[in-house]
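Deviations from the work plan: none for this task. Representative record:
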Amino acid sequence: MATTDSAVRSTPESAHRTANEFSIQVATVNGSGSQTANLILIRSLFQMGIPVSGKNLFPSNIAGLPTWYTIRANKHGYIARKKEIDFLVAMNPETAREDVLTLDPGGVVVYDEPLNLSGLRSDLTFYPVPFDKLVAAVCPDAKLRRLVRNMIYDGVVAYLLEIELGEMEKALSRQLGKKQKALALNLGALKAGFDYAQEHFQTKAPFRVERMNATAGKILIEGNAAAAIGCLMAGVTVVAWYPITPSSSLCESLIDLLRKYRMDKATGQATFAVVQAEDEIAALGMVMGASWAGARAMTSTSGPGISLMGEFTGLGYYAEIPALIFDIQRVGPSTGLPTRTAQGDILTTAVLSHGDTRHPLLLPCSVHECYQMAIEGFDLAERLQTPVFIMSDLDLGMNMWMSEPFEYPTKGFDRGKVLDVAALKQVGEWGRYKDVDGDGIPWRTLPGTDMPAYFARGSGHNEKGQYSERADDYERNLDRLTKKFKTAATLVPAPEIDQPKGAKVGLIGYGTSHWAIVETRDQLRQEAGLETSYLRLRAYPFTPALAEFIDRHDRVYLIEQNRDAQMAALMRMDLDPARVAKIRSVLHYSGLPIDARTVTDAVLAQEGLAVAHAAVAADAPHAAGVGGE
Amino acid sequence: MTTPAGSPPAPGKKLNRIGLEVAQYRGSKTTLCAGCGHNAISERIIEACYDLGVDPKRVLKLSGIGCSSKSPAYFLSQAHGFNSVHGRMPSVATGALLANRTMAAIGVSGDGDTGAIGVGQFVHLMRRNLPLVYIIEDNGCYGLTKGQFSPTADVGSTLKNGVVNDLPPIDTCVMAIELGATFVARSFSGDKKQLTALLKGALSHKGTAMLDVLSPCVTFNDHEGSTKSYSYVKDHEEPVSDVSFVPYFEDIAIEQEEGTTQTVTLHDGSKIVLRKLDHAFDPTVRGESLRMLRESAERGEYATGLLYVDPAKKDFCSMLNLVDEPLAFLPAAVTRPPASVLDELMDKQR
């Protein structure tokens, strides 16, 4: 019975089966232990040298709600999310019907046999697998079956796509190496799935895997783990945080690293302090106190935490206290979509707090930049004596990304302008908020040194740090802070620019949109002959390179993962109107990671060129929005 | 703003044990109302630090927002200070002390700053037993915003315009004891001897020392009908014992009287000597402290003095097992792991 479904379908010859260019979606129920199975799947492809990316689309829930994991393998190296699913593993009875109905024709479905899905469509290839029967045979202990059941689909997929079983076993050993019993059970389940597929399915999937050499030497890591390694290498000493998805894993990874590498093995003495604070207000308060006293301190949060940190951020701006804050952005407030991605905090964070405030934002697009910008972020915060934000997002922070391995830092720490005896001689008469060097950055002193003390406070102070409500003192201080922000523009990471000769249309993007934009540029060239330039923002404040880039183009498309074109709003504040007039927005705000097809079609539409793929329309109303200036 | 460091004292001036004159413990001129209890508290802080020979350069002064929170500017001008945001001083103090555990720290808050907007941070500060002297300058009202009730105002007490408070007060001492503070006292800004002795004890204690100091607001809350007026507090203050402080560096024989004297030895060897008055009260037993506070509140009295003490409990920095040197000053060689560590981490992800 199991063979009939697939036997009657088209039987592509091996040569006609597309190699290393497909997407797999595994639909399960969260809390069912599918994470290991999915990790093994992505790792085995990676080990076979094929460029991969994985996106975990999960609910805000401990167990029982639908979750999807999509893996994209792509020989060209495209690692943005691909909307269209080629290969579905349907394990969740609740979503199985809809999951099948939304597939493009020609797709493949592996499913739990009792779900009886094969009658739903005639244009797909179905592979029914009796998971319960198979797991009962390999796992005598009924209580453990739930945990190894998912490994069976890995075996089935391995057979259908020709993923080398040895690589899967290797990935599994690496994952469960220390748990011998669990490893044995999972290896058994993997084999059972593979054997079942081999015995019952005469036809393999229309897609296949072929060993490549595109991942040699590379690593596979989540952005939050990468940022944690960056903090470790930046010599962080005080960490204060409050749990919040999707940022928690950053501080949790960091705690593991600090315990391992910064604690004396014999005495247990630590060269770091970590506090799980009572809320995000306290977390940033602790960072402020620690930085004021001279420590390298950081916190990590997401949108709701950023809101709570508003008041302290303003104090940090005016009292001029360093702080490094990671914002792993997610969708909106309260309950709803806290486990979905967005670039929704850009505008609010750039001007966070009351009164006149502006804050440097670093915009990592990759796990490598999560690492690199963590290191640069500490230097910048101390150099500029101000809160600095690293604007990551859920897609980057919590998903696995391929990367070149990280380089050991070649530069030492920049601790900024901290007054000592030698500096005091140069400075002459010291004033805490006096611009001695013409860059707007004053010299600070630290408690516990022999340098003069000052009383840190908010907006009302003169150059000497004395309490003042004088209009001229306040104005002069604001102007110096403006000058300091201009200095910041010379210190933050410069944008990356690629400008082919003759391109009249420019694309601007930042953060995780990068990966879709790279692919979009190829699609625009191939499908419509449209050559584009690309500027990837890596920080706010903007550097002059942005204005120059806009000047060189007839029009530019600014691609963002929010509804309100938040980066465009910042540009409206900072650029002159002639340049702003050239900006058009491409906006994606479904909560799912941005994909190239959406961006390409939005650009083509605004360019008045034909949209190549009809399939796009299906989820366009909620997946993509297009806004113009 | 800053007194020149180490300037030699004028000849003939009285010096303390580290060679400083009392002027070197002062701050800038107060801008609070004449007669404000907070000024008297600043004077007691100056006196206590001078007498103990605390190095003002080794002290952190922290505060939130309000009249109380302005006062750190009026003492120890050679100490670094941080006037933070409303109700959030505890978190700033926590970060600062983790960065440099070798510093002494005095946090000044008010009854609104602690009991209302800052009650969350207050609660968690007490739980952590951070080595901090936490002073509430408690006048039962918001002074800077012109006299509204604060959460420590008693039921039935009135505003100047006759408005009656209907809500029960928060007893910050009861909260502190319940939550894990290890030195809890209540005093009165007008009781020089008791307050100075308690401040010295607090400065010598390793852990959170929470002092609720009743400090009448002469402008907005010193009228008939207020239970935080100078005369009301004076009439209803009920010391639980007579407190004296013997620093570790003074060799004074303590006269022990069986059943009426209790000596508490603090972390640095200093001693607090309690001569019992009417009550047979032992401040080292948490349950007794709470019972005594409840009973005195029912009588409408302010029990003052050392209400609870536990000198043995680990402070937060010790709990975290921090290295002895300040984290703030650790060199890169200590805080940046070698390249081999990064290699190891990269290998794990391959």
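DSSP finds 24 helices and 24 strands in chain A.
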